[in-house]
Amino acid sequence: MALPRFNIVNAKSIDQAAKILKANPKAKAIGGGTDLLHGFKDHIYVEYPDTVVNLRSAEKGYVKEEDDGVHIGAMTTIHEIEKDSLLQGSYGVLAQAAASVASPQIRNASTVGGNICQEPRCWYYRNADNLFYCLRKGGDDCPAFTGRNDIHSIFGAGRVCASPCEDECPNGTPIPRYFEMIREGDIAGAAKLFLASSPLAAMTGRVCPHACQSVCNRGGHDEEVSIRDIERYIGDYILEHSKELAPKAAADTGKKTAIIGSGPAGLTAAWFLKLAGNEITVFDKNELAGGMLVYGIPAYRLPKDLVAKNVRMIEDIGVEFRQGVCVGKDLTLEQLMADFDAVLICNGAWTSTRIGCKGDDAKGVLGGIDFLYRIARHEDPGVAGKTVAVVGGGNTAMDACRSAKRLGALKVYNFYRRSRAEMPADEIEIEEAAEEGIDFRYLVAPAEIISENGMLNKIVLQRMELGEPDASGRRRPVPVDGAFETIDVDVLVSAVGQGVDPAGFEAAGLTERNWIAAGPETYRTGIESVFAAGDGAQGPDTAIAAIANARKAAASIIQYLGLKPETAPAEDEMGLLTFDKGCTAHSQKMSLRGKPVPERTLFAEDIATASFAAIREEAGRCFDCGCVAACPSDLAPALVALNARIRTTDRVIDANDFFAVGVQASTKLREGELVKEIVLPKPDPSVRSVYLKYRHRKAIDFPLFSAAVVLSVNGNRIEKASIVLGAAAPVPVRAKAAEEILIGKDLTESLAAEAAEEALKDALPLGENGYKVIAAKAYVRKAIVKTLD
411: how many CB neighbours lie within 10 A of its CB? Predict the structure, then answer.
């Protein structure tokens, strides 16, 4: 395969080069080495630049002493750093690191700027013809984590981007982060972190379809992590300890917001708006708060006392609920607009879609939502001793089937126009419905409903076959000519879809489908102070989708009212992710099974929440998806140990903060930003420094492990210490605990050995690189001792 073609621009200055890069996102800089060109030749990239900007033409390298320290130009070669007398004397750790780089030829060609910005040296990343689309190229996983990893990190992984599970969740739930807290035994911390994204963990831990599990990288290894079951435990813990865990609302701002509807969207919005200091009143037409959580999901899946607990938690932070108030009947939207600074419509999707065949208006034909609503209100839907048929393949259909069976229906059919493989219902719901005796009939669709004396009597089914995929990605059902079947039925439940009743909200503006018309980013309707979220605005969807867009709508209202939003907990700046040792060993996921069929009832929960020990073990199966490629730069640990600063075309960054993990990036440099020079602190005559590198052969161009040690010594007593481990993680690792052991003590071999043990105490070796931990201890100890020379 030919080398990709590109234009070459010889930059006249580093600043000019940065301008070119900012103006052309498809341009790449080359600093003098051959790293980039080798990548082109081997076709390791997903995309290739159309322009390469040569930085060597921009300026010559330099090492000069100034008032604030020693300045090293980005284009200074590794050889020049190695041989510079000032660096050899006062900054020996850097000169020694430079001398260890590869071969004389490479040291003469490579620059300090290029060395600290080089891309990963992982063979999966560098494999010819881009065979492995890994995280560092924009992919979803790190093949080295479960594959060949003998040269990789021994201190965890680097967070490149949101993990697949987090990315797939409509609400962006920080799944790996709260799993990490669970593994550490910090349940309260995990609960607080979850509350920063949703107050309804106990709800979604039971009823969310959890698409996140379908993209779990563990699934390609053995079985995905049971995210929903872990979330369920966290949700129950939150409700049991809500007084201690719920954050305190901000001081009253004097702003008032009305929320119409108390379903998942209304509850979520109320939570976040109240925390921001709003006075919140929720208006709801039903007797109980909770919306579809109460009236649309059977109690055996979601107990109503649990929903009530969740509502009370939201009440406890100061939210007022006014139940039995129907906006459009008892009061108008205009009245709310007059009394409140903002109004959020979360009216839900409460109407059932008709089947759409001849006779579907017969007595005995019920809507799926209406059917479940009546059951939730303990009203008799009239199915005991009768033959019931439910049309549809989603969770509402499964809920209707199973509820009818538990109410004493003699026979329950499920009619679905596609095959089981295309059913959108949760697999567990389908399995348990089959266990309970539901008679599934696939590839059939109602063609006609026959009545006798005004009552439903029979249903005529059209046989179907699967054709080409439709817009949903599922194969389209196509009628089979002349193929019909007639079945006796007493009650027919239509669970083929839901609609929105917009009565009372017309002034806000409606879509062609009668949803509330709201902006996709602002959630604002045609009225400036009126917003809309949830199923009523976005269309019928899952509870987690309603939670996600209600959270965004709340943020939009907070901005509109000029308030300060609650801030989520900050991420670990270093970005290193941890996981259980041995988590790659093959294992089965945790599975919560329901009660035996004879013990299942309509109003008692089928499944018990797992124990902490069980969810801790399951969280331990999480890979905490990140990149485990080790930082390959020899100079990086030396610069961190020296407390150097990196001056770029845009800013100055401490070396300790400079290195990061990203897509085709190993630093925090932004698009079009370039390194201009390195600034070392003023020389300190009390400093002794050593750099040692572990490698299999001298000519190799990257370390398997390195140690940079800088000590300030008075006599033999250590006053300051800096120990930095290279090639031990995706970024250089500062061994602060080991430094503390040294400070204030006389340097001895036994002290060095103690510090080395401490430096590697938290190591997380992978399957094939345990040898690096052993080597690292020896090299850290030796480097500390060598400062005595």
Answer: 18
Angle among Cα 547, 430, 592 to the nearest 5 degrees reads 70
Q: Alpha-carbon torsion 123, 125, 128, 130, what sign?
A: positive
Rounded Cα gap, residues 155 and 178, in angstroms? 19
Structure confidence at residue 574 (pLDDT)? 46
pTM beyond 0.85 = yes
pLDDT grade, residue 38 (50/70/90)?
confident
Q: With beta carbons less than 8 A apart as the criterion, state whether 70 and 95 touch.
A: no
Residue 349 pLDDT: 96
Query: Which amino acid, residue 78?
Result: I
Q: Which residue in the block uniquely carries the two structure tokens 């009743």?
A: 501
Q: Does the pLDDT of residue 549 top 60, yes or no?
A: yes
Mean pLDDT of 256-278: 97
* Residues contacting residue 578 through CB under 8 Å, at least 6 positions apart: 156, 180, 183, 624, 764
Query: Tell me, what's the pLDDT at 699?
Result: 61
Task: List Cα–Cα distances, 383 to 181, 298, 405, 410, 647, in angstroms.
Answer: 48, 16, 8, 8, 76
- Res. 572 pLDDT band, cuts 50 70 90: very low
Residue 566 has pLDDT above 70, yes or no: no
Beta strands in 312-355 (DSSP E): 320-323, 342-345, 351-352
What CA–CA distance (Å, rounded) separates 281 from 266? Answer: 10
230 alpha-carbon distance from chain centroid: 15
Q: How confident is the model at residue 567 (pLDDT cuts 50, 70, 90)?
A: low
Sign of CA dihedral 168, 169, 171, 173: negative
- Burial of residue 147 (number of CB atoms within 10 Å: 0-12, 13-18, 19+): middle
Distances (CA, A) of 751 to 305, 712, 755, 756: 60, 16, 6, 9
| Main-chain dihedrals φ then ψ at residue 466, nearest 5 degrees | -90, 130
The residue-averaged pLDDT of 768-772 equals: 95
Within a 13 Å sphere around the CA of 787, how many CA atoms are in the beta-carbon half?
Answer: 36
What's the rounded Cα separation, in Å, for the pair 308 and 298? 14
Does the pLDDT at position 697 exceed 80? no
Sign of the alpha-carbon dihedral angle for 366, 263, 215, 185:
negative
Average pLDDT, integer, range 757-780: 96
**Is the per-residue pLDDT at 32 higher than 90?**
no
Using alpha carbons only, what angle is made at residue 760 by residues 755 and 761, rounded to the nearest 5 degrees? 90
Q: Which helix (H) or strand (E) holds 175?
A: helix 175-183
Distance of alpha carbon 497 from alpha carbon 264, whole angstroms: 19
Q: Each residue of 253-286: b (16+ CB within 10 Å) or e?
A: bebbbbbbbbbbbbbbbbbbbbbbbbbbbbbbbb
Distances (CA, A) of 153 to 16, 104, 667, 703, 769: 37, 27, 17, 12, 8
CB 709 within 8 A of CB 112: no
